[in-house]
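Input (structure):
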């Protein structure tokens, strides 16, 4: 005990030679009063006891490595807002922080080896001044001149990962993340201005954009809370009450939020985080990227992101992964590409896929038009136009029209409050191929006729600017469709069924809400959002509530008790997502009541099957293949999947794609309309433009009426390019 006291006293006496003030930390130091971490009060504390500067070891780290930093005085847990020697911590030696005679700051160990320093050149022979820790958290080097003083360096100009009120973000400033929670070394992420004021970017590994503010440009309004953060970042209040450059207005007081206890941190995991100090702890108020889909270009070009799904990315209908192997291993960077190119003469019908509640990257062009069709025409008139969208202006009846000329990126779906309708240009023949999955050879029943109901509209352009007019109506006699129509961005494979007239009746457990483009799985226990369909593996996933994960069990039970239920719960709720995976059993031959209902199954005839029901049974020397859902030659094991037939097969004919398209869609809507079900509104409109059949007796008005007279929710509009 006595020896402890004695050694303490010795230490005390030794240290007192280093410093003028003991125990009570001051807020400033000069070249004659360096800071040592082995002395009592070896820190600076700002005058109002807001911040403290000294050596520290990050919480959770036990190797004793020490960093010189600034943290909030007495806030627990201690969080550093600035670190000097990020890359070279002081090992088990005394840390020394000094202001040199030349005016430079230096972090050293006991042996005098430098671990960090500033490199400034002052003209005066000997630097006279001091270093002062302000109540704002700013560490300021003040030079005393004959009649005045000047700030020569400040930590606010050299931030690490934290932005404090009073700083000002300029083009030269970056916030660089720590390497990890306990390692202040520069990490992978940098936050900085993105060219203009109020536009921000997080770069990963130097050059890869990880997040950008306002990716959608004027297409969607940006997050309102970003404005709060912008206000903080653009602050232009005078930094300190010292003679410095800079004007003295204070923008922060004009906002509702009191910024005095806030901070913005570039976190080591890639998130920029805005914190408020509330009561006794930091509250995370805003952060970006806010989810997996807010990461810049999370799903690549033409990839559509849904952060709530276990697998967040899928290609839009009409597109396929650029690199299928990477895509399968959930590396979505490369994105998707068109199955068939635009303005390809081989492709007879161009059309748009109308998607609801979508977000997309910045449009390339913006126009002010009086009518929607002008926007549509603008896009059709250019072969490089990938998509269009429009919105009624607030002030007048005009519309704002956006068109995208480059590959779409940053696509997100199901944004209930923020999204917009997006019309993506996809040749309808591509969709026919993907949706009907057939060779189209069975589509023979097109009946182009002026008198029938408006389902197919053939348009003829008057001039090369593709002004649309002269509608011609066609319809079809065939009614049986193999696949159900696309629901939002989801292609529904056979035999899954969203209505009595598509897919296989046994699998009619799905419902498409056309107004929002969402597919749900409906069973006695409830309705569940379908989050993904894997046609190849014959399974799909549904989202259940966290508390509903138990429902999985009852669904599983139902599978065992009800043999006619073609769905098997195969797992879920164990992936961190409240998703349940369900496999569907392979279908047997489709039910039928008349011969032409078997048109979609070549080599089959409608006759009585062993179960007593009438089915499209395969003809002699063919057998039913439940995988390709087709009659295949009995000798061959398996024929190439019909779903992968190349588009080129379609050729330049309008009739075939038109007809088969209708086979897929129109018969259904026609039939269903008669029943007055909810599907009545979901008819499809195809606009065909046929230059060859140009007709002077055009009625251009008809098109103008089209968007309003047609109560179509899911419109596919198209044209035939000139041949
Ligand atoms: C420097 O700190 C001391 C206390 O250690 C204080 O008395 C003095 O006023 C400070 N100087 C300035 C200029 O703030
Ligand atoms: C740290 O101290 C230990 C003993 O206390 C010594 O063995 C080790 O070499 C020291 N490390 C450095 C980097 O000085
Ligand atoms: C300092 O102030 C005095 C009187 O106010 C003035 O005469 C002198 O020129 C000033 N010196 C400098 C370097 O500004
Ligand atoms: C950024 O730094 C460059 C040189 O480092 C300097 O010329 C420029 O004035 C700085 N810009 C701002 C806005 O501080
Ligand atoms: C960063 O880039 C380097 C080389 O360019 C690479 O080795 C490293 O894996 C990258 N790190 C990340 C996180 O992407
Ligand atoms: C701030 O500066 C003004 C004059 O510019 C001075 O009157 C005031 O005392 C200063 N306040 C502090 C806290 O230094
Ligand atoms: C701050 O306020 C000034 C004066 O009121 C104004 O000119 C400036 O645009 C404001 N800056 C920001 C970022 O709001
Ligand atoms: C902001 O909050 C601090 C304390 O957290 C308080 O001292 C200050 O007066 C507040 N400022 C305004 C403008 O309300
Ligand atoms: C914060 O303090 C207020 C009043 O000072 C109190 O009503 C509130 O419950 C506190 N919140 C928390 C999370 O402690
Ligand atoms: C509406 O759009 C037309 C072009 O279609 C334009 O000439 C007109 O100025 C617009 N009106 C307004 C108020 O912007
Ligand atoms: C498509 O249909 C045609 C004619 O019916 C047939 O000759 C051709 O083999 C079929 N192609 C495929 C890939 O099934
Ligand atoms: C046009 O359609 C009507 C009704 O579907 C049909 O009776 C008529 O024969 C058709 N005309 C032609 C030329 O196909």
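Output (sequence):
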């Amino acid at each position: 005990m006595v020896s402890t006291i004695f050694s303490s006293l010795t230490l005390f006496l030794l240290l007192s030679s280093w410093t003028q003030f003991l125990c009570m930390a001051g807020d400033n130091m000069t070249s004659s009063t360096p800071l040592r971490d082995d002395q009592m009060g070896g820190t600076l504390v700002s005058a109002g006891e807001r911040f403290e500067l000294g050596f520290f070891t990050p919480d959770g780290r036990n190797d004793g490595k020490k960093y010189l930093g600034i943290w909030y005085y007495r806030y627990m847990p201690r969080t550093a807002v600035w670190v000097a020697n990020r890359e070279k911590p002081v090992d088990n030696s005394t840390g020394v922080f000094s202001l040199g005679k030349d005016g430079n700051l230096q972090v050293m160990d006991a042996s005098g080896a430098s671990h960090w320093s500033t490199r400034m050149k002052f003209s005066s022979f000997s630097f006279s001044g001091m270093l002062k820790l302000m109540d704002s958290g700013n560490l300021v080097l003040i030079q005393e001149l004959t009649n005045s003083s000047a700030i020569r360096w400040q930590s606010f100009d050299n931030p690490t990962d934290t932005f404090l009120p009073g700083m000002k973000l300029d083009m030269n400033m970056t916030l660089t993340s720590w390497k990890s929670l306990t390692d202040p070394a520069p990490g992978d992420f940098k936050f900085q201005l993105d060219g203009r004021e109020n536009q921000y970017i997080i770069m990963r590994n130097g050059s890869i954009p990880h997040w950008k503010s306002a990716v959608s440009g004027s297409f969607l309004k940006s997050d309102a809370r970003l404005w709060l953060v912008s206000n903080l970042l653009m602050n232009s209040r005078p930094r300190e009450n010292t003679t410095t450059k800079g004007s003295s207005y204070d923008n922060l007081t004009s906002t509702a939020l009191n910024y005095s206890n806030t901070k913005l941190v570039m976190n080591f995991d890639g998130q920029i985080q805005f914190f408020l100090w509330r009561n006794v702890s930091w509250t995370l108020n805003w952060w970006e990227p806010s989810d997996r889909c807010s990461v810049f270009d999370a799903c690549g070009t033409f990839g559509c992101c849904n952060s709530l799904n276990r697998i967040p990315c899928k290609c839009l209908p009409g597109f396929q992964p650029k690199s299928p192997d990477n895509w399968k291993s959930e590396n979505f960077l490369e994105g998707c590409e068109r199955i068939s190119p635009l303005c390809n003469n081989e492709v007879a019908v161009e059309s748009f896929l109308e998607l609801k509640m979508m977000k997309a990257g910045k449009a390339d062009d913006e126009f002010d038009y009086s009518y929607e069709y002008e926007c549509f025409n603008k896009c059709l008139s250019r072969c490089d136009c990938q998509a269009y969208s429009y919105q009624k202006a607030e002030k007048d009846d005009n519309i704002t029209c956006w068109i995208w000329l480059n590959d779409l990126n940053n696509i997100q779906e199901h944004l209930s409050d923020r999204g917009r309708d997006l019309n993506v240009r996809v040749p309808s023949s591509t969709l026919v191929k993907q949706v009907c999955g057939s060779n189209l050879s069975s589509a023979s029943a097109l009946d182009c006729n002026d008198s029938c109901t408006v389902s197919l509209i053939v348009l003829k352009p008057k001039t090369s600017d593709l002004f649309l007019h002269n509608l011609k109506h066609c319809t079809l006699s065939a009614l049986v469709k193999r696949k159900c129509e696309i629901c939002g961005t989801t292609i529904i494979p056979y035999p899954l069924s969203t209505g009595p007239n598509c897919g296989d009746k046994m699998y009619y457990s799905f419902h498409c809400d056309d107004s929002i483009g969402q597919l749900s799985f409906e069973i006695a226990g409830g309705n569940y959002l379908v989050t993904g369909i894997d046609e190849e593996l014959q399974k799909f996933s549904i989202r259940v509530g966290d508390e509903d994960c138990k429902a999985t069990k009852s669904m599983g039970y139902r599978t065992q008790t009800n043999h006619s239920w073609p769905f098997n719960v195969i797992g879920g709720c164990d992936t961190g997502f409240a998703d349940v995976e369900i496999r569907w059993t392979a279908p047997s031959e489709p039910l039928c009541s008349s011969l032409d209902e078997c048109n979609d199954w070549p080599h089959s005839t409608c006759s009585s099957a062993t179960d007593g029901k009438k089915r499209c049974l395969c003809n002699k020397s063919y057998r039913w293949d439940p995988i390709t859902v087709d009659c295949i030659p009995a000798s061959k094991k398996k024929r190439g999947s019909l779903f992968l037939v190349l588009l080129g097969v379609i050729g330049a004919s309008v009739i075939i794609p038109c007809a088969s398209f209708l086979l897929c869609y129109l018969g259904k809507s026609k039939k269903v309309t008669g029943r007055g079900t909810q599907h009545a509104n979901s008819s499809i409109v195809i606009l065909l433009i046929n230059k060859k059949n140009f007709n002077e007796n055009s009625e251009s008005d008809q098109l103008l009426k089209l968007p309003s007279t047609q109560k179509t929710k899911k419109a596919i509009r198209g044209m035939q390019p000139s041949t």
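Notes: The chain is about 10% helix and 30% strand. The first strand starts at residue 28 and ends at 29.
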